[in-house]
Design goal:
By secondary structure, this protein is of the alpha/beta class. Helices cover about 25% and strands about 20% of the residues. It is built from 14 helices and 19 strands. Helix 7 links the parallel strand 11 and strand 12. The longest helix has 14 residues. The C terminus is likely disordered.
Length: about 475
């Protein structure tokens, strides 16, 4: 079937954003008041949604509400979380609630409000490929417009001087468990799909949660709260040596500042790789409040006598897994410190095994000859989040939340989204529509002294005259 083409402006756009998650939504919100900037954003999903399978009742985001889409770059923006509350006449209730960390569902609703308010966002648009046109000196972006059923409706092509990739991450399933997820029968699912299958999981006689991060803790707590005392039949395992709290000390949190991002980017590649692996507790630990809630719930169940039927074991990895007569799942476990092994039979498995950066090979195949890569074949990304391309390419390709290897643990953090978006917009415009602070942390991460921030000038003292002034 030949699809009809869609017409695009003859002159190239200034910016095409690919993907509309929180990162590119932040970019779109901050780009909106820049009237001279012609920007458009494409997303293949029918509308905005943010981890819908993990919007568990009561679960909160792990950054303060000030880490919304815009505030840390422009507190006066109409797209701030506080203005969202004002538009819903909920500002006073929020004030009295005294909440610094909002619920995930509320953050999702806020982002939906922004997405529905902005122009230039095109959902049901699947980007098929990106190429550089040396003749026209622009990027060519091919896309397919999808109908309500997700089927191809028409084809389109637009030209742009700059591209920002914000295609997000995908659920990660460890190799030993991939065959179980792909096979129907006994439920084995990623936590990203938890709420969609929650009733089925709750109905299972024995449930195992794999993963010792925040998602694993939230799923385990939700299951625990909905199982009868004494008959919980839950097992929670994870690879880390402990169900460890996330680093929330004030100086520890300075690893999520622009100062640390700049320091990390300047380090040699081998040092950066070692740091990312060692700093897991900065971004893969568990909120202390969630750990406390789990302990409180377990303790509450001892008041009736006896211990809850729940096993929590860190330091465990899944070696292999299989099905038993399509009725149960057998996990072959290994305790790393003990060097011991165990077979665990269960009726359902929830994999809270995290996310990985979405592969960019399909979208960027046309740019592959121009891309400069590091020793591990990853794209080289400069300090302004721009992929390093051949000098013959005069356009710029930026990334959002695909730069963990070059910018460190702050790459997926919502708290740096507005600053990164502002950095990209400043780079694209060649101006400074969003002035950014020279210093953001008390910690000096290297031996070089931090940039001095100009001190506020003291007010001029006026000397009174004899007649008063």
């Amino acid at each position: 079937m030949t699809l009809p083409p869609r017409h695009e402006p003859e002159s190239p756009r200034d910016l095409v954003g690919i993907g509309i998650g929180p990162c590119n939504l932040s970019l779109a919100a901050l780009a909106h008041p820049l009237s001279e900037l012609d920007a458009v954003f494409y997303e293949q999903r029918p509308g905005f949604d943010w981890h819908p399978g993990l919007l568990i009742e009561g679960a909160t985001i792990q950054v303060p509400f000030l880490a919304d889409l815009v505030t840390l770059a422009d507190p006066t923006s109409p797209w701030s979380f506080l203005n969202y509350l004002r538009s819903r006449e909920r500002l006073f209730p929020f004030y009295f609630a005294e909440r610094f960390h909002i619920q995930r569902a509320e953050y999702d609703a806020y982002c939906r409000w922004v997405a529905q308010s902005l122009s230039g966002l095109h959902f049901r648009h699947q980007v098929d490929g990106v190429r550089w046109s040396p003749e026209a000196d622009v990027f060519e972006v091919d896309y397919t417009r999808l109908d309500a059923d997700g089927e191809a409706e028409s084809l389109g092509r637009t030209h742009t001087r700059n591209i920002v990739l914000g295609v997000g991450t995908v659920p990660y399933v460890p190799d030993p468990l991939k065959p179980l997820v792909d096979t129907p029968g006994v439920p084995v699912l990623h936590a990203a799909d938890y709420l969609a299958h929650r009733d089925t999981v709750l109905a299972a006689e024995h449930v195992t949660v794999v993963g010792s991060g925040q998602s694993g803790a939230e799923v385990f707590l939700d299951l625990l709260r909905h199982r009868p005392p004494g008959r919980e039949t839950l097992h929670w395992i994870g690879r880390t040596e402990a169900f460890a709290p996330m680093e929330y000390s004030k100086l520890g949190l300075e690893h999520f500042t622009p100062d640390y991002t700049r320091y990390f980017h300047a380090l040699p590649e081998p040092v950066r790789d070692r740091l990312v692996a060692a700093q897991w507790q900065l971004h893969k630990g568990i909120d202390a409040g969630t750990l406390a809630a789990i302990h409180d719930e377990l303790y509450r169940r001892t008041l009736l006598g006896g211990w809850p039927d729940a096993v929590l074991t860190p330091g465990v990895r899944v070696r292999t897994a299989g099905r038993i007569a399509n009725r149960k799942i057998e996990l072959h476990l290994e305790h790393v410190q003990e060097n011991s092994r165990l077979r665990l039979t269960t009726d359902a498995v929830v994999l809270a095994t995290g996310y990985r950066e979405r592969p960019l090979d399909r979208i960027l195949a046309g740019l592959d000859p121009y891309m400069r890569r590091d020793s591990s074949e990853r794209p080289r990304i400069d300090e302004e989040f721009r992929v390093v391309l051949d000098p013959t390419v005069t356009g710029s390709l930026y990334v959002q939340n695909a730069e963990l290897h070059t910018h460190g643990v702050g790459a997926p953090d919502l708290g740096l989204a507005a600053w990164r978006s502002a950095t990209i917009l400043n780079s694209i415009t060649g101006k400074e529509p969003y002035p950014l602070p020279a210093r953001t942390a008390f910690t000096t991460f290297g031996l070089d002294r931090p940039a001095r921030v100009p001190q506020t000038r003291r007010p001029m003292r006026l000397t009174p005259l004899a007649d008063g002034w």
